[in-house]
Design brief:
about 425 residues; alpha+beta; Rossmann fold; 6-stranded antiparallel sheet; about 30% helix
Length: about 425
């Protein structure tokens, strides 16, 4: 097969790493890729958002499968364009990608089909939003309706914080078009969980469990980010919890999307919170999580390519996947200042030495090569240092051991990734 992966982050590096290992693959491209991905795939200078350019390249190269990593090209209709050309694409149509592209759409769908989620309201006028906050009280959550690169969710401990978030989004335009409408939700108490399922329009196949860390600082403090680390399996995801998630959230959503003329194909990523009343949905994403993909791929024993094809072709009904018993943990290294503005171009040394650590693979999220051939940073989240070991605790030790061999003064990371699993001292799937 000839396969094209779309995207340039750590998620796409992990996908390219897994796809490149398949004996079914003759040639693998990544558009646009990054300096680390170049070790696994041929990087093509086409932006992930260039739907015309990507479709043209796929047609010219007679690509057999396009794996679309980020949400933006899915929302822009890349899968639809490829389908019109007769090219198989892993990822939902633009209509189905609305599950992530509009939080309001997702919440309304849940309300119509009784998928358990937080109580909410949708607002485009600041005064109405503030009145809702005054009536509901705090803590409360304010979300930009559209795509905001994982940063459009503000958890507000006080009503004044929530009011400020409303002003930032609706009046100041902090998130641009993504924040022209907002969703305000009740704050739910409980442990968060990332849950992934392959979907072929009708059938859903759950993947291994994972948990990420959204806050920028140790102890889950500071602003939300795109994700500062992840681990798999997640002890919180017992067989009972996984069954409940499939029965009350994943299967009803797949049925609902089909019934409403938006059949869903691809990976469905449910961000959950485990409340006293059972699992509830925080949000849907229409692509692999980043950095969760970086812990799922190293644990996957099965060849990923047939699974991706089965999701595209509606053949998941009798499909199964095998997973390693070992745990995986990823620590994200980011540029100082993230999730705010960052300076690119700082030199990163010691990557070869770090990668020699037993069980460690380093996935690149935002790197480039300098004129002298050195790796340099090119964004906020830059590296995903991933370790596989018998337990989450051992994987944690290996990952941080590798990080300590990386010479990057302009970089930082959390030092407590996996703390919940380590504290609980167990793991399940």
């Amino acid at each position: 097969m000839k396969i094209l992966v779309v995207g340039s982050g750590g998620r796409e590096h992990a996908l390219c790493w897994a796809i490149a290992a398949s004996p079914l693959v003759d040639r693998l491209w990544c558009a646009p890729g990054n300096a680390g991905i170049a070790a696994n795939a041929e990087c093509v200078g086409i932006a992930a958002g260039d739907v015309d350019g990507l479709a043209g390249f796929a047609r010219e190269q007679a690509i057999d499968l396009v794996v679309i990593g980020p949400e933006a090209p899915l929302a822009a209709g890349l899968a639809d364009r490829l389908a019109a050309l007769g090219i198989r694409a892993f990822g939902p149509s633009a209509d189905a990608a609305m599950l992530e592209a509009s939080k309001g759409f997702m919440k309304d769908l849940c309300a119509r089909h009784r998928v358990p989620t937080a109580a909410y309201g949708r607002f485009s006028e600041p005064e109405a939003a503030k009145a809702h906050i005054a009536a509901a009280g705090a803590p409360i959550v304010v979300k930009a309706d559209g795509l905001a690169a994982g940063k459009g969710v503000i958890i507000c401990d006080t009503a004044s914080e929530a009011t400020r978030a409303v002003d930032d989004m609706l009046t100041e335009g902090t998130f641009g078009a993504a924040g022209r409408e907002i969703v305000i939700e009740e704050f739910l108490e409980g442990e968060e969980l990332s849950f992934f399922a392959l979907v072929d329009g009708e059938h859903a196949l759950p993947l291994a469990s994972a948990q990420d860390h959204k806050r920028v600082g140790d102890g889950d403090t500071g602003p939300n980010t795109g994700g500062m680390g992840a681990y798999s399996p997640a002890p919180a995801c017992t067989d009972e919890i996984a069954g409940a998630v499939m029965d009350t959230i994943i299967h009803p959503t797949v049925r609902a999307m089909k019934a409403e003329g938006r059949p869903y194909r691809g990976i469905l990523y449910a961000g959950l919170i485990l409340t006293a009343d059972g699992p509830k949905l925080l949000e849907f994403n229409v692509r692999f999580g980043d950095p969760e993909c970086q812990v799922l791929m190293p644990r996957l024993v099965s060849d990923i390519v047939p699974a991706l094809v089965a999701a595209c072709d509606g053949e998941l009904g009798n499909f199964d996947l095998r997973w390693r018993d070992e745990a995986a943990l990823t620590v994200v290294m980011a540029t100082q200042g993230y999730p705010g503005p960052v300076d690119a171009g700082s030199v990163i040394g010691g990557l070869d030495e770090a990668a020699e650590t037993e069980g460690v693979t380093i996935f690149h999220a935002a790197t480039a090569r300098s004129e002298t051939g050195e790796f340099v940073s090119s964004g906020g989240r830059v590296l995903g240092v991933t370790a596989v070991a018998a337990t989450v605790a051992e994987a944690q030790q290996r990952a941080y051991g590798a990080i300590d061999r990386i010479d990057w003064p302009d970089g930082f990371c959390r030092r407590d990734i996996g703390w919940r699993a380590v504290r609980q001292g167990g793991q399940s799937d």
